[in-house]
Amino acid sequence: MRRRARGPTLVAMSDTPVKQQSTAAFYGQAVASFGIAMAATAIGIFRLNADAWVRAFLAIAVLYLVTSAFTLAKVVRDRQEAGRIVSRVDQARLEKLLSEHDPFEKL
After folding, report:
1. CA angle 29, 68, 76 (to 5 degrees)
2. Cα–Cα distance list, 67 to 1, 20, 33, 79 (Å)
3. Relative to the CA of 62, which of 27, 87, 101, 103 has its CA 20 to 30 Å away?
4. Burial class (CB in 10 A: 0-12, 13-18, 19+), 59
5. pTM for this one?
6. Do 59 and 45 form a contact (C-beta atoms < 8 A)?
7. Cα–Cα distance, 32 to 57 (Å, whole number)
8. Short-list 79, 94, 69, CA closest to 14
């Protein structure tokens, strides 16, 4: 009995991950913007007509806000990456199942 040739092999288009990398100009702009904003805020707090404890409180509040923003950005990024990994695992399972299934095998 002759065996039928299997159907075309499924090749996933998503085998190579897409690297989302920022350009050097965008990275430089982001770093410069952050530096300018922090410097302007520090100068504003330093030159504020208030007692030293008020300026110290504002400086601590700004530093806490910055660290909280970095932490939030990291958590959001990690959650998105975890979602992508789960999605890719599910996609790989489906592709494996489809590649193993031959509808003409029992004919």
Report:
1. 75
2. 71, 24, 16, 18
3. 27
4. middle
5. 0.57
6. yes
7. 25
8. 94
Cα–Cα dist 59/42, whole Å: 7
State the pLDDT confidence band at 11, using cuts at 50, 70 and 90.
very low
Three-state DSSP at 64 gives: helix
Amino acid at 102: D
CA distance 83 to 86: 5
Q: The tokens of 98 are what?
A: 């489809």
Q: What is the pLDDT of residues 65-74, one digit of tens each?
A: 999 999 999 9
Six token digits for residue 103: 């509808």
Task: Quickly state the pLDDT bin for 107 (edges 50, 70, 90).
Answer: low
The amino acid sitting at 77 is: R
- CA geometry: angle at 96 spanning 90 and 102, to 5°? 135
Q: Count the alpha carbons within 13 Å of 75 in the hemisphere toward its beta carbon.
A: 6
pLDDT at residue 17, rounded to an integer: 56
Residue 62 predicted with pLDDT over 50: yes
